[in-house]
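Task 17 of the worksheet. Students: predict the tertiary structure of the chain below and write it out as structure tokens. Keep your answer in the requested format; marks are given for formatting as well as content.
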Amino acid sequence: MRLRDAAADGKVPCMSTAQKHLLSVLEDLRSVPSRVLEAGCGDGSLLVQLKARGYEVYGFDLENFGLQDAAFFDRCHARLPGLRDDPSRLRLIDEQAPWPFEEMQAVISNQVIEHVRDHEHFFANHRRVLAARGIGLHVFPAREVLFDFHVNLPLAHRIANEGVLRRYIAGAGRLGFGKAARPESAGGGAAGDLARYLKTLTNYRSLRELRALALRQGLVADFSKTVGFYERRFGLRPLPSLGGVWPWKYLANVTMILRREEDL
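Model answer:
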């Protein structure tokens, strides 16, 4: 699809594989124009892409959660100057507050659900704001994934003890692996800080748990689009499988589609 006049809202930022995948799946499932809410919109980089494609965009993020720098929402507004005439479409809210929108035809997020502290609250609000026949679309690492990109090490998120985790991150760093190997660079950090980040700012759930949590709120979870992320990432379509199954499909991210029970 050709972008609309993206220059009207400033330069369209470069996209990650996850953002490209989100947009591709969304365009397959929900035609333009549609009312799309991004939960955890951050600095607005994905909202810019959505708006450039003709979607009617809304977004919110959390105040004082600890993941973003102090100026992140200023950058979000700067990237979407056309929304300044309707500031209610971009909101900062408290972590336990109700989501501020309704009748959304799509609710999306990118690398958010592994940071949610209260998944019951997340799914209850998701169900409440979703319009009839609307869809949820979320890309994130579940507990089953093999690699944790928050520290750039395998299985770090599966280590329960913070002291053991800190030693694992530090030891890998001394060998030149993970973010502790480059503490001076962007995204790097000391082993203790990285371990504390994983323990205080992430909350990984398994696919089974997520399905149950969603269903408790009247939402049905579908993970069938996950393999498409890796087909795009590795440039192979279809991705080679072993006996009809691709066993590494949960390498780093899953793709979850949510629909209301009554719409199925």
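Marker's comment: The radius of gyration is 19 Å. The chain has eight helices and nine strands.
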